[in-house]
Amino acid sequence: MKPDPTPVPYGRGVLVVEDEPRLRSMLERAVRDMGFDVTLASTGEAALKIMETQTIGIIILDLNLPGIDGIEFLEKIRRRNRKAQAIILTGFGNLETAKKAIHLDVVEFLTKPCSLGTLEVAIDRARRRCIADGPSEAWRDQPQERETPAPRPAADAPSPTALSLEELEQRHILAVLEQNRGNRAATATQLGISLRKLYYRLGQYQRQGIIP
After folding, report:
1. pLDDT in tens, 118-162
2. By the 8 A CB rule, do 125 and 107 touch?
3. Terminus-to-terminus CA distance in the chain, angstroms?
4. Of 45 and 107, which is predicted with more confidence?
5. Do residues 68 and 42 lie in contact, with contact meaning Cβ atoms separated by under 8 Å?
6. Which of 8, 71, 144, 190 could form a disulfide with 13 if both were Cys (CB 3.0 to 4.6 A apart)?
7. pTM for this structure?
Protein backbone atom coordinates (compact mmCIF):
# COMPACT_ATOMS: atom_id res chain seq x y z
CA MET A 1 0.00 0.00 0.00
CA LYS A 2 1.42 3.40 -1.05
CA PRO A 3 2.00 5.91 1.75
CA ASP A 4 -0.10 9.07 1.60
CA PRO A 5 1.71 11.95 -0.09
CA THR A 6 3.23 14.52 2.24
CA PRO A 7 0.72 17.36 2.62
CA VAL A 8 1.80 20.66 1.11
CA PRO A 9 2.28 23.33 3.82
CA TYR A 10 -0.38 26.05 3.68
CA GLY A 11 1.00 28.94 1.62
CA ARG A 12 3.15 26.62 -0.51
CA GLY A 13 0.32 25.40 -2.74
CA VAL A 14 -0.38 27.65 -5.74
CA LEU A 15 -3.33 27.33 -8.12
CA VAL A 16 -2.68 28.89 -11.55
CA VAL A 17 -5.93 29.69 -13.39
CA GLU A 18 -4.99 30.69 -16.95
CA ASP A 19 -6.61 29.66 -20.24
CA GLU A 20 -3.66 30.43 -22.55
CA PRO A 21 -1.59 27.19 -22.71
CA ARG A 22 1.83 28.72 -23.30
CA LEU A 23 1.49 31.27 -20.49
CA ARG A 24 0.04 28.60 -18.18
CA SER A 25 3.04 26.36 -18.84
CA MET A 26 5.47 29.25 -18.29
CA LEU A 27 3.81 30.15 -15.00
CA GLU A 28 3.93 26.52 -13.86
CA ARG A 29 7.69 26.30 -14.47
CA ALA A 30 8.40 29.68 -12.90
CA VAL A 31 6.35 29.04 -9.75
CA ARG A 32 7.83 25.54 -9.30
CA ASP A 33 11.33 27.01 -9.59
CA MET A 34 10.40 29.35 -6.74
CA GLY A 35 9.81 26.30 -4.54
CA PHE A 36 6.01 26.07 -4.63
CA ASP A 37 3.68 23.17 -5.41
CA VAL A 38 1.62 24.09 -8.50
CA THR A 39 -1.85 23.00 -9.64
CA LEU A 40 -3.16 24.15 -13.03
CA ALA A 41 -6.63 25.01 -14.32
CA SER A 42 -7.63 26.44 -17.70
CA THR A 43 -11.13 27.57 -16.66
CA GLY A 44 -12.85 28.96 -13.60
CA GLU A 45 -15.12 25.91 -13.48
CA ALA A 46 -12.13 23.54 -13.35
CA ALA A 47 -10.51 25.69 -10.66
CA LEU A 48 -13.66 25.53 -8.51
CA LYS A 49 -13.54 21.72 -8.61
CA ILE A 50 -9.90 21.79 -7.52
CA MET A 51 -10.82 24.05 -4.61
CA GLU A 52 -13.37 21.47 -3.47
CA THR A 53 -10.66 18.87 -2.81
CA GLN A 54 -7.51 20.87 -2.05
CA THR A 55 -6.65 23.55 0.48
CA ILE A 56 -5.15 26.20 -1.76
CA GLY A 57 -3.42 29.17 -0.16
CA ILE A 58 -2.44 31.20 -3.23
CA ILE A 59 -4.26 31.70 -6.54
CA ILE A 60 -2.74 33.30 -9.65
CA LEU A 61 -5.83 34.30 -11.59
CA ASP A 62 -6.39 35.49 -15.14
CA LEU A 63 -9.47 37.72 -15.37
CA ASN A 64 -10.44 36.96 -18.98
CA LEU A 65 -11.45 33.29 -18.73
CA PRO A 66 -13.91 31.23 -20.80
CA GLY A 67 -17.13 30.43 -18.93
CA ILE A 68 -17.12 32.18 -15.57
CA ASP A 69 -14.62 35.02 -15.57
CA GLY A 70 -11.93 35.70 -12.99
CA ILE A 71 -13.95 38.11 -10.86
CA GLU A 72 -16.94 35.73 -10.71
CA PHE A 73 -14.61 32.86 -9.76
CA LEU A 74 -13.02 34.98 -7.02
CA GLU A 75 -16.44 35.98 -5.68
CA LYS A 76 -17.31 32.28 -5.33
CA ILE A 77 -14.00 31.61 -3.56
CA ARG A 78 -14.58 34.45 -1.14
CA ARG A 79 -17.95 32.98 -0.18
CA ARG A 80 -16.32 29.67 0.73
CA ASN A 81 -12.64 30.27 1.56
CA ARG A 82 -12.08 33.89 2.42
CA LYS A 83 -8.40 33.50 3.26
CA ALA A 84 -7.21 32.30 -0.16
CA GLN A 85 -4.74 34.93 -1.36
CA ALA A 86 -5.38 35.98 -4.97
CA ILE A 87 -2.92 37.54 -7.41
CA ILE A 88 -4.67 38.92 -10.48
CA LEU A 89 -2.96 38.56 -13.84
CA THR A 90 -4.51 40.66 -16.58
CA GLY A 91 -4.04 42.73 -19.69
CA PHE A 92 -6.50 45.59 -19.33
CA GLY A 93 -9.57 46.14 -17.21
CA ASN A 94 -12.22 48.71 -16.46
CA LEU A 95 -13.06 50.76 -13.41
CA GLU A 96 -15.95 48.53 -12.37
CA THR A 97 -13.67 45.48 -12.41
CA ALA A 98 -11.06 47.36 -10.38
CA LYS A 99 -13.67 48.28 -7.74
CA LYS A 100 -14.81 44.65 -7.45
CA ALA A 101 -11.24 43.43 -7.12
CA ILE A 102 -10.56 45.92 -4.31
CA HIS A 103 -13.59 44.60 -2.39
CA LEU A 104 -12.35 41.04 -2.94
CA ASP A 105 -9.04 41.92 -1.25
CA VAL A 106 -6.57 40.78 -3.90
CA VAL A 107 -2.89 40.71 -2.99
CA GLU A 108 -1.60 42.28 -6.19
CA PHE A 109 -2.41 43.22 -9.79
CA LEU A 110 0.11 41.99 -12.35
CA THR A 111 -0.21 43.32 -15.90
CA LYS A 112 0.65 40.94 -18.73
CA PRO A 113 3.44 40.51 -19.53
CA CYS A 114 5.05 40.77 -16.08
CA SER A 115 8.64 40.03 -15.10
CA LEU A 116 9.44 36.93 -13.07
CA GLY A 117 10.90 39.17 -10.39
CA THR A 118 7.58 41.01 -10.03
CA LEU A 119 5.73 37.70 -9.90
CA GLU A 120 8.08 36.36 -7.22
CA VAL A 121 7.57 39.46 -5.04
CA ALA A 122 3.78 39.12 -5.33
CA ILE A 123 3.85 35.40 -4.48
CA ASP A 124 6.08 36.02 -1.47
CA ARG A 125 3.67 38.69 -0.25
CA ALA A 126 0.78 36.22 -0.65
CA ARG A 127 2.75 33.52 1.18
CA ARG A 128 3.40 35.84 4.12
CA ARG A 129 -0.29 36.70 4.30
CA CYS A 130 -1.08 32.96 4.34
CA ILE A 131 1.28 32.47 7.28
CA ALA A 132 -0.25 35.41 9.15
CA ASP A 133 -3.87 34.40 8.53
CA GLY A 134 -3.63 30.60 8.62
CA PRO A 135 -5.78 28.26 6.50
CA SER A 136 -9.51 28.65 6.23
CA GLU A 137 -11.86 25.83 7.08
CA ALA A 138 -12.04 23.16 4.41
CA TRP A 139 -14.30 23.97 1.47
CA ARG A 140 -16.41 20.87 2.11
CA ASP A 141 -17.33 22.22 5.56
CA GLN A 142 -18.86 25.34 4.05
CA PRO A 143 -22.52 25.48 2.99
CA GLN A 144 -22.87 24.90 -0.75
CA GLU A 145 -25.44 27.38 -1.95
CA ARG A 146 -27.32 26.87 -5.19
CA GLU A 147 -26.56 29.66 -7.59
CA THR A 148 -28.27 30.84 -10.72
CA PRO A 149 -25.58 31.92 -13.17
CA ALA A 150 -25.94 35.50 -14.28
CA PRO A 151 -25.50 36.35 -17.94
CA ARG A 152 -22.02 37.64 -18.71
CA PRO A 153 -21.81 41.15 -20.12
CA ALA A 154 -20.05 41.52 -23.43
CA ALA A 155 -16.35 42.21 -22.90
CA ASP A 156 -15.06 45.55 -24.05
CA ALA A 157 -12.27 45.29 -26.60
CA PRO A 158 -9.03 46.60 -25.05
CA SER A 159 -7.55 49.67 -26.61
CA PRO A 160 -3.92 50.82 -26.64
CA THR A 161 -4.86 53.67 -24.27
CA ALA A 162 -6.71 51.45 -21.75
CA LEU A 163 -5.47 51.60 -18.16
CA SER A 164 -4.26 48.55 -16.28
CA LEU A 165 -6.25 47.41 -13.25
CA GLU A 166 -3.40 48.59 -11.02
CA GLU A 167 -3.75 52.14 -12.38
CA LEU A 168 -7.53 52.00 -12.11
CA GLU A 169 -7.35 50.80 -8.52
CA GLN A 170 -4.89 53.58 -7.67
CA ARG A 171 -7.13 56.28 -9.19
CA HIS A 172 -10.21 54.91 -7.44
CA ILE A 173 -8.55 54.75 -4.01
CA LEU A 174 -7.13 58.27 -4.29
CA ALA A 175 -10.47 59.66 -5.53
CA VAL A 176 -12.32 58.16 -2.54
CA LEU A 177 -9.61 59.44 -0.18
CA GLU A 178 -10.07 62.94 -1.61
CA GLN A 179 -13.86 62.67 -1.24
CA ASN A 180 -13.32 61.87 2.44
CA ARG A 181 -10.84 64.78 2.82
CA GLY A 182 -7.99 62.49 3.77
CA ASN A 183 -9.94 60.53 6.42
CA ARG A 184 -8.39 57.07 6.02
CA ALA A 185 -10.83 55.21 8.26
CA ALA A 186 -13.82 56.57 6.31
CA THR A 187 -12.03 55.82 3.02
CA ALA A 188 -11.35 52.19 3.98
CA THR A 189 -14.99 51.76 5.02
CA GLN A 190 -16.29 53.22 1.75
CA LEU A 191 -13.90 51.05 -0.30
CA GLY A 192 -14.86 47.94 1.67
CA ILE A 193 -11.24 47.07 2.55
CA SER A 194 -9.30 46.88 5.80
CA LEU A 195 -7.56 49.97 7.13
CA ARG A 196 -4.31 47.96 7.07
CA LYS A 197 -4.66 47.33 3.35
CA LEU A 198 -5.41 51.01 2.69
CA TYR A 199 -2.27 52.06 4.59
CA TYR A 200 -0.28 49.48 2.63
CA ARG A 201 -1.55 50.79 -0.73
CA LEU A 202 -0.91 54.43 0.25
CA GLY A 203 2.60 53.47 1.33
CA GLN A 204 3.16 51.97 -2.12
CA TYR A 205 1.97 55.17 -3.77
CA GLN A 206 4.32 57.25 -1.59
CA ARG A 207 7.30 55.06 -2.51
CA GLN A 208 6.38 55.45 -6.18
CA GLY A 209 6.19 59.25 -5.80
CA ILE A 210 2.48 59.34 -6.71
CA ILE A 211 1.51 61.05 -3.45
CA PRO A 212 3.70 63.04 -1.02
Report:
1. 889 999 999 988 888 766 544 443 444 444 343 333 333 333 344
2. yes
3. 63
4. 45
5. no
6. 8
7. 0.67
Packing angle of the helix pair 165-179, 184-191 (nearest 10 deg): 130
Q: Which domains does the chain have, with CATH numbers?
A: 13-135 (3.40.50.2300), 165-207 (1.10.10.60)
Residues 38, 123: Cα–Cα separation, whole Å: 12
Rg for the chain (alpha carbons), in Å? 18
- Per the DSSP assignment, residues forming a β-bridge with 15 are 39, 59
Q: Report the residue count for the chain.
A: 212
| d(C-alpha 95, C-alpha 160), whole Å | 16
% of the chain residues with pLDDT over 90: 29
pLDDT in tens, 93-110: 666 777 777 788 888 888
> Environment class of residue 53 by beta-carbon count within 10 Å: exposed (0-12), middle (13-18) or buried (19+)?
exposed
